[in-house]
Automatic annotation (TrEMBL):
The UniProt record lists the keyword Metal-binding: yes
GO BP terms: L-methylmalonyl-CoA metabolic process
Keyword Metal-binding attached: yes
Descriptive protein name: Glyoxalase
Origin species: Thalassospira alkalitolerans
Amino acid sequence: MSNHNPNPTPYPRTFSHIGISVPDLDAAIKFYSEVLGWYVIMTATRITEDDSHIGQMCTDVFGKNWGSFRIAHLSTGDRVGVELFEFPNNEPRDNNLEYWKTGTFHFCVQDPDVEGLVEKIIAQGGKQRMPIRHYYPGEKPYRMVYVEDPFGNVFEIYSHSYELTYSAGAY
């Protein structure tokens, strides 16, 4: 018999981690640790399809015949995990910002020095996808921009927390 309440009051779950697929794991570890300052908590490791616990877990996720991949684990300053995956025969997307398709199309990091972080991203082979914009021009200093890492993964930068940015109400 379960001890859980069938109609619990919902509460906000915390974010555990995100998985990012990259074509070059070593370069991605360098980019994310040097540019975003994320901590490497598990260095690059090869996972192989076999009967081990992790091998079986990956078969459950990817299906049979996935072969092997390399993975590293990083952590953000607020303890959110980042799994970097390098799969063999990886393919770049033709369009890396298919926002009209359902599913995840970006993640966001926060840095009060949006401009400085954009400069670092560009210097390390990434791209700025748009001008830096203000959420409440002339009223509040909240800024944002979309960028991409050197591997084509799109992400956003906010100058202030999500709660501060949106607590003022509608646009």
